[in-house]
Specification:
Elements: E1 6-9, H1 22-25, E2 30-33, H2 36-44, E3 50-54, H3 55-61, E4 67-68, E5 72-76, E6 83-87, E7 96-100, H4 104-118, E8 124-128, E9 141-145, E10 159-162, H5 163-171, E11 175-182, H6 191-204, H7 206-217, H8 221-231, E12 232-235, H9 238-253, H10 269-274
Parallel strand pairs: 1-2, 1-3, 7-8, 7-9
Antiparallel strand pairs: 3-11, 4-11, 5-11, 5-12, 6-9, 6-10
């Protein structure tokens, strides 16, 4: 009997449509939840076969033979609401930066944006540990990601920057936060089809996901529904690929990822055998 495909995902609201009812569409799959940065570490150790990881982790691990599952992403073409920079000083005066430990893509994005938009490379960078409220950090500015970013009181800060919106204004392109990434040599079988069914079902049943998540997040269900259906994009189209390539180049310029990384897409074995 073949071992189950080990799928790693995040429990954040923004990811739920990508694996909604996955175990129904792919019986026997092993679906495991963790933080984005930890999923990347587990994928690199061979503990997962495919994982929804920060896009920067794909860029950093591409030399290991990682492959992107085509067509899927967590992306935004405007404000994303769940990736924000909260600053206690005017942005031009940021010298000490605290970075949410939950997503390394957002960590890289804020540094890319500060450099490209304001010519700032913070003198001191520190972690905001998982579970520590942004208000407890004494840094000049704090990056907060995920569901908790939507709950931080903005009136406690001098400036708040939605980083997906800031990226779009800077480049005119969407920003890709996360991708389904496959370890080299893994046969996914029916999983790509099951993931497509999951995404379709997740978006069709987004109101149910929103109603379930809202009380736990302390948000109105209509806000959660709008977030899932209007704010986020779950496609990896031409514009998203262009945005990912632009981010790769700008991050490489700061030494945050290797230079010259090519985007390699996973090809199903049954399709490869026919060509």
């Amino acid at each position: 009997m073949a071992a189950p495909i080990r799928v790693g995902a995040v429990s954040y609201l923004n990811a739920k449509p990508l694996y909604h009812r996955l175990e129904q569409f792919a019986p026997g799959v092993s679906l495991e939840m963790d933080y984005p940065s930890r999923l990347a570490e587990r994928l690199s150790r061979g503990e997962l076969d495919i994982a929804l990881i920060p896009s920067v982790e794909y860029l950093r691990g591409a030399s290991s033979g990682y492959e992107i599952l085509p067509g899927f992403a967590i992306a935004a073409r405007g404000p994303v609401r769940s990736v924000k920079l909260f600053s206690r000083v005017p942005i031009a005066e940021v010298r000490r930066l605290a970075l949410d430990d939950g997503s390394r893509t957002s960590q890289a994005l804020v540094r890319v944006w500060l450099d490209a938009k304001h010519g700032i490379r913070p003198e001191q960078i520190e972690n905001l540990p998982l579970g520590v409220p942004a208000l407890e950090s004494s840094a000049d500015a704090v990056l907060v990601i995920g569901d908790r970013a939507m709950l931080v009181p903005e009136d406690e800060f001098v400036a708040t920057v939605d980083l997906a919106q800031a990226w779009n204004e800077l480049t005119g392109l969407p920003f890709v936060f996360a991708l389904w990434v496959v370890r080299p040599g893994v046969d996914l079988g029916i999983l790509p089809d099951a993931l497509e069914q999951s995404r379709v079902a997740g978006l069709a049943e987004a109101i149910d996901i929103a109603n379930q998540a809202a009380p736990m997040l302390g948000l109105d269900a209509s806000v959660c529904y709008d977030y899932l259906t209007r704010v986020l994009s779950y496609d990896l189209g031409e514009a998203e690929v262009a945005g990912l390539k632009r981010f790769a180049a700008m991050a490489a310029n700061l030494g945050l990822v290797p230079e010259g990384v090519d985007l390699v897409f996973h090809r199903r074995r049954d399709l490869a055998a026919r060509s």
